[in-house]
């Protein structure tokens, strides 16, 4: 009789009704978030070299502490805010062939051009699917605003006269799929994958007079693995 009663209580705690988010519930999550930019290279435009050049740049990936806040409007719909510690990315230069060595050092293919840091706060609407288990999948769509700061050329490009690196802020959409796996009525594990539309223009100078720019489609895939608590 005692075992039956304990089993009934546990089943009640782990029932779909108990585990589902309800209106007013707040989830707070923390864990690892990886930003992997689009692998496509961005072409570089330099006025003094007649416009488009053989040069291109790419941006590497980075992993930081991710934070996530979810507010449930009802058992299916929720609003999510994604935050994180600042992401730092190395910018690599490629394909300097075809440019006069007197204008640019052509032996820098694959060298680190500089580093940029950004914050990508994202607000999304989530839809949770009804399930009869502790596994709660969802889809989401939202808006992203990415702020770039601490843009800086590395030592080698600086010695060649590169300076005043600046990236414009970006405003775009975000799409995601994810799932919560509830460990009990309060704790859960969350995994998500999202695509964020981040397009920016990088502007810089070579010396005092030569201006250059590059349209960079960062467009990263963002992977998160977090643990969350329901309040």
Structural account:
The chain is mostly beta strands and 231 residues long. The chain has a single domain, classed as Porin (Beta Barrel). The chain is 9% helix and 61% strand. The chain contains three helices and 15 strands. The protein has helices spanning 2-13, 16-19, 155-159; strands at 26-36, 42-46, 51-59, 62-72, 77-84, 87-94, 112-119, 122-128, 135-153, 162-167, 170-182, 187-196, 199-206, 210-217, 221-230. It has an eight-stranded antiparallel β-barrel with strand order 1-4-5-8-9-11-12-15. It is elongated. Mean pLDDT is 83; it is low at 8-13. This is Outer membrane protein OmpW. One of its GO terms (biological process) is transmembrane transport. InterPro entries: OMP/PagP_B-barrel, OMPW. Residues 1-20 form the signal peptide. Keywords: Signal.
- Based on the coordinates given, report the CATH architecture: Beta Barrel
Strand order of the largest sheet: 1-4-5-8-9-11-12-15
Rounded average pLDDT: 83
Number of domains: 1
**Structural class of the secondary elements?**
mainly beta
- Number of H- or I-type helical stretches: 3
**What's the CATH topology label?**
Porin
Please tell me how large the radius of gyration is: 23 Å
Distance from first to last alpha carbon: 33 Å
Number of extended strands: 15
Give the class-level CATH name: Mainly Beta
Question: Strand percentage, roughly?
Answer: over 45%
For the biggest sheet, the summary is: 8 strands, antiparallel, barrel
> What is the string of SSEs from the N terminus onward?
HHEEEEEEEEEHEEEEEE
Keywords: Signal
Protein name: Outer membrane protein OmpW
Signal peptide: 1-20
